[in-house]
Amino acid sequence: VFQKWVNREISNFDYLIQLNTMAGRTYNDLAQYPVFPWILRDYTSEELDLNNPAVFRDLSKPIGVVNEKNAKTVKEKYISFFRYENFEDPLGMIDKFHYGTHYSNAAGVMHYLIRVEPFTTLHIQLQSGRFDCADRQFHSIPATWQALMDNPNDVKELTPEFFYFPEFLENQNGFNLGQLQMSKEVVNDVILPKWAHSPEDFIYKHRKALESEYVSAHLHEWIDLIFGYKQRGPAAVEALNVFY
């Protein structure tokens, strides 16, 4: 599979799906759901220029430190995390970490896919029988990216659906997801980047970005973080890539 990918006989999308499968990730287990990278950083331009390297996320860094400003906080947390987090570990059994949450977990999958079943029902069960408050819902792709850049504790990567399944961006079932507190805006369909004219257009351009020259040249750097040698040990510490 690797050789086929290097020879460009299979797409970046197919290679990532196969890597997830080989790593034991599956659509049948929310705790081990397939994980895909954020690949863009431009969610505000009117047009998306895939020939401009500046529109892409730095794939060599974990999402928590793609914004350089967060790196200092993350490093400090690792060095003195028992003090920093008021962390109780009387037996000294817990290894140090940069992030107390994970880039892929069941709650994160439900967060992104809340508008489609069975994820809607699973989310409601997780929230004791009702939807979580509107301000915590996935309601806007640009706002979600901005929150990631502002908050080193939010380290969610994407699910594969962001590259092929436009329906998850629409509230086709008419669920009442509430109103945002500040703006009183009703949470309905997901707000798209300005360069996407519809959910289908977003998926088309996002998939095109995944298969672009830039991503093809750098995707291995992200794979090293998630599936490769930077997952643990000294390489993970150096890459600011150690998870609780």
TrEMBL record:
Single GO term (MF): protein kinase binding
Q: Which organism is it from?
A: Cinclus mexicanus (American dipper)
Keyword list (alphabetical) reads: WD repeat
- Lineage, top-rank taxon, reads Eukaryota
Pfam families xref list: Beach
One biological process GO term for this chain? intracellular protein localization
GO annotation, cellular component aspect: cytosol; membrane
Q: What is this protein called?
A: NBEL1 protein
Positions of the BEACH domain: 1-244
